[in-house]
Amino acid sequence: MVKTINKTFIKKYKIDIGSFYFYEQYVVGEVEEGSDLNFESGKELYELIEKHYNNIVPYVYISNRVNSYSFKPTRHYRSARLFPNLKGYAIVTYDEVNTKIAQLEESFSEIPTCIFDNLNDAINWSGHIITSP
Predict the structure, then answer these.
(1) Contact 77/100 with Cβ under 8 angstroms?
(2) How far apart are CA 20 and CA 23, in angstroms?
(3) Residue 21 CB partners (closer than 8 Å, separation 6+)
(4) Is the pLDDT of residue 118 over 90?
(5) For residue 71, pLDDT beyond 80
(6) What is the pTM (predicted TM-score) of this model?
(7) For residues 65 and 94, what is the distance between their CA atoms, to the nearest angstrom?
(8) 22 within 8 A of 11, measured Cβ to Cβ
(9) Which segments of the chain does DSSP mark as H helices, in order?
(10) What is the structure's pLDDT at 4?
């Protein structure tokens, strides 16, 4: 029997660093053009994640890279400790340059990470990650 991910939409949040779409088992993030995403600028996002998933509900973060922004890939080393129920990280890119950046970022991740060229494939992959034992 193949399980599927719960794709029930919960709520969209528009905050300083971007728009975030919360679903039962995944978040789709679209960071604003030119933003510097770091632990300080992402504090409101982290609070929303905690509010919805409460360090209990397993979820996947999907970075839908529709805009260019800065992010230091070495920050991924802290993600697993800060978000114990984060089960996977999907990166959706739309051009070769951002795909290469995502490949570098992927090398620093301690959780399952995968790069996609469309959002639907990333959502389907998140279902696999969530339902895997």
Answers:
(1) no
(2) 10
(3) 9, 12, 27, 28, 29, 30
(4) yes
(5) no
(6) 0.88
(7) 7
(8) yes
(9) 43-53, 76-82, 96-106, 119-131
(10) 57
Q: What gap in Å lies between CA 26 and CA 49, rounded to an integer?
A: 10
In the block, residue with structure tokens 């993600």: 79
Which strands, in side-by-side order, build the sheet including 59-64?
Answer: 9-15, 18-23, 26-31, 59-64, 86-92, 113-116
Are 75 and 41 contacting, i.e. CB atoms less than 8 angstroms apart?
no
Contacts of 9 (CB under 8 A, 6+ apart): 21, 22, 23
How many angstroms separate the CA atoms of 118 and 95, rounded? 11
C-alpha pair distances (Å), 119 with each of 32, 38, 64, 66, 127: 17, 23, 7, 11, 13
Other CB atoms within 10 Å distance of the CB of residue 92: 24
Q: CA angle, corner 118, sides to 11 and 39, nearest 5?
A: 55
